[in-house]
Amino acid sequence: MPTDIIMPQMGESIAEGTITKWIKNVGDTVARDEPLFEISTDKVDAEIPSPAAGTLLEVLVQPGQTVAVNTVVGRIGEAGEKPAAAVPGAGNAAQVAADPARATPAREAPKAPTETLPAPPAAPAAKSPAASEPKEAAAASAGATPSPSSFEERIRTRSSPLVRKIAQENEIEIGQVEGTGIAGRVTKNDILSFIDNRKSAPRPSPAAAAPAAAAPVRTEISRTERDEVVPMSVMRRKIAERMVESCRTSAHVATVFSIDYTTIDRLRQKNKDSFLAANGVKLTFLPFIFQTVTAALKEFPELNASIDGEEIIYHHDVHLGMAVALDWGLIVPVIKNADEKSILGLARASQDLAERARSKRLKPEEVAGGTFTVTNPGVYGSLFGTPIIVQPQVAILGVGAIEKRPVVVTDPNGSDSIGIRTMGYLALSFDHRLIDGAVADQFMAKVKKTLEAGSFSLS
User: Hey, what CATH class is 252-453 in?
Assistant: First the structure.
């Protein structure tokens, strides 16, 4: 019997995945656990290993298509088995790819996800019998695989008990709310924003007919035959959504400090060869910055926090996100419990996460749960920037280029001179809803003082 290849569930909150590439072709021989195809989800891009050894017989889902978890995306047969010829009229992958109407982000899912999805809360308003009959008939067919439209609706209206309670108290059907969470789920912020907008919207007079909903304004972009038009990748779409969501959520403010890294640079130059030989990792500036930041976060807990509605969550552990640039986008793996690691531990963790991010070997839990993020655009020569906060965090630190510059140096006697120092900028973007400018600058002053003192242990 052929072995089904399924879309894996890469984490508890993941409901679907997009196939970005088949590494093997139909008819190829594959070994068990050999990389078979690549997927992209809300959390991570990953290579998926083959569930069995044999021959790839069928590819049922083409690159670019999105399907629910546990959907069969292909089949593997015995070693040497020949792929069956395509049957005219059968819904095989080639036909799906050739027919754009059937290639709607491949939610023609042959299987429903294994997790049980709660039904949306009943709307308080009474509905006509004719409108309710189809739903009652669907509920009566127990065990039937839901249609794509009903599955999408159930995914979108899935929400936390708190969100459902707020919706019920305010007589709102969750399906009416535009969700910004994973797979379109409605979050607490979504439902509260919907309520606020409904309160502020002008109420039409009873005699006035309900106007048609205004279509969103979209700037017309001219295209010529010399332009190249390509669809956004799944990762690019997710990055776009997250960045717009963050700008809409947080009150972004930035502060920039100049740092003298000369003492750290001397320590690096003296020990970098022996450090690499003994530990197998390079001694860069980043582990020093990471350790300094994690220590300062303990002193200024406002920056290691999250906002949930009108509540503040202070995180006692520091899970440090580190932005990694990829050829196809950006990802932020997390160094868990970074405040407990030495310079060596931070160097090893950051190198390991960066290498596995670039080879698509990260696990979903390794890109979740960050409480503060550091990004390093300076590696490309940038002096400083104002990075966008990674939600639901409240701050992010940007590391600028570290280079030698002429600066004014004051000796112990108070005499000034021009000296060559190893300098760089650190830029902090912070959420002014929680962090005041004075606190942000005190945090940065602490980081500056620690880095410039250069008192670090490499053991």
Answer: alpha beta
CATH code reported for the domain at 3-103: 2.40.50.100
Which pair of tokens denotes residue 232? Answer: 């956004």
Domain 148-199 falls under CATH 3.40.640.10: no
- Name 43's Cβ contacts closer than 8 Å, sequence gap at least 6: 10, 11, 13, 14, 364, 367, 368
| Number of residues that this document lists for the chain | 459
Which stretches in the chain have pLDDT values below 50? 86-152, 154-156, 205-210, 212-213
Instruction: State residue 254's pLDDT score.
Output: 98
Which two three-digit tokens encode residue 233?
Answer: 């990748």
Using CA atoms, how far apart are residues 102 and 104, in angstroms rounded to an integer?
6
Mean pLDDT in the chain? 80
> Do residues 22 and 93 make contact, with C-beta atoms less than 8 angstroms apart?
no
- Assess contact for 73 and 19: CB atoms under 8 A: yes
pLDDT at site 158:
54
Which residues participate in catalysis according to the annotation?
432, 436
Q: Tens of pLDDT along 447-459?
A: 999 999 999 999 7
At 332, list the tokens. Answer: 């932020």
| Rounded Cα distance, 33 and 25, in Å | 16
pLDDT of residue 238: 83
pLDDT at 128: 42
What are the domain boundaries of the chain? 3-103, 148-199, 252-453
Beta strands in 233-310 (DSSP E): 252-260, 305-308
